[in-house]
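We emphasize that the prediction below concerns an isolated chain of 351 residues; any contacts that depend on oligomerization or on bound cofactors are therefore not represented. The input was used exactly as deposited, without trimming of termini.
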Amino acid sequence: MKKALLLVIISASVILSSCGSGESERKKFKYQTASKNDIDKKAEIIFTADTSNRTLEFEFYISNPSGIPFPVHKESKDTCRYTSYRFEFLCDGKPITLSDQKFECFHRRMNYRIPPGSSTLIFQTDTLHALQRNSIKISVPFYFFSSIAAGNGKDIQLRVYQDEFFSEIHAKKQLRPNAKEISEAANGDHYNDSLDVIYRNSMPQRLVDMQVSFKLNIPKVYSSTFICKKITLQNDKDWSPAGSDITLFKSSYPDLYFETFFPAPQFLMHTSHIQKSTDEWNIGDTSEIVYYNDKDVFKISVLDWDKFSHDDPISIGECTIEQLKKSESVPVKFDHITGFVVRFENTKTKN
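Result of the prediction step, given as a token string:
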């Protein structure tokens, strides 16, 4: 391939201290970069630290000139103008083990994801047109690094590369599964009702391959078995859930389920089973959650499931791990939820 001029700008925020402090501190963050390609490029990489949360955030911009000689598929004669980028994390030069396979699901509502079945910490973007100026923002909670022993000054590398070109993109809508299918799905499975992207063909070819090295402080990560016992909806003269589930033929009580997020709002930790037509969810649900300390704040969404349209939020609230641990004696209340009751078991450190 002829030399092509690339403009690459990566900016990152590294979030290091306890959440809930409400304080931010930005400072220069040391890094080193190395390129593995002979392609002529200019790069600027900026890291800043923000102590209001524990999430590694970085932003990646790339702009390619129009003169790139895109590969042409031999059989179809398609010009492959689409690509995707990979962001691979390493510690001391070795791939970081993905400590929990359910982390694959966390990014279902974003434009990047952990490739299905991956055993290492690597993110892949959606397919992008290579001639458009693309902005890629990725946020990584520190519990994704829980296979690394807790401690300060861990040597982390982030490899950014592109190794495929794609031809035409076809998309199709997928019907959402029904409530029974979701309830019977294995714990941790999630569904995505967005467009399903199908590639007609692809060609391996590398355009970008660079690495950033920096040090990171890894906090202690705890996990607990999270057993939801009961969710009770307000049902009085001021507000009633009756009629909140409106169909073509009738109105009824909602088909209830809940989701937990940490950090909120984008990191989905768990989606529960669905209980149909009720004002009290009591079918029980067990999952594993991860957190750093009892002051961490979780977001909880209680929703009415709908097969043919977007699910309707009934109540959205936030509470601490400490409040959840006490909920059997003091139920958590928020919005139209008069009681959210859970039990914590098997608490342990992951690193």
